[in-house]
Known about the structure:
By secondary structure, this protein is an alpha+beta fold. The protein has 3 helices and 2 strands. The chain has a two-stranded antiparallel sheet. A hairpin with a 4-residue loop joins strand 1 (about 10-20) and strand 2. The radius of gyration is 16 Å and the shape is elongated.
Amino acid sequence: MNSNGEFEPYLRIVEKEIGGDLLDYNETSNRFINDDLFKEYTGPHFRALADFAKQNKLSFKRKTDIIRILDEYERIVDLDSSD
């Protein structure tokens, strides 16, 4: 959310159900809406998050990876606030 309390989407995740004769499955596609938003909102911690993602082979393009990166961001911010 921005400073006005408005939601600014970073990524749109679309899941589509595919039905077949032998197998039913979901297909997920990701579309970036604002690539710079993650960097903008994590500010001085972005470099540390990018390093964390690289070390753990995470992508800023996959939902599960973004959740892990945001968990790391929360940990970093908590460490900063406890100093």
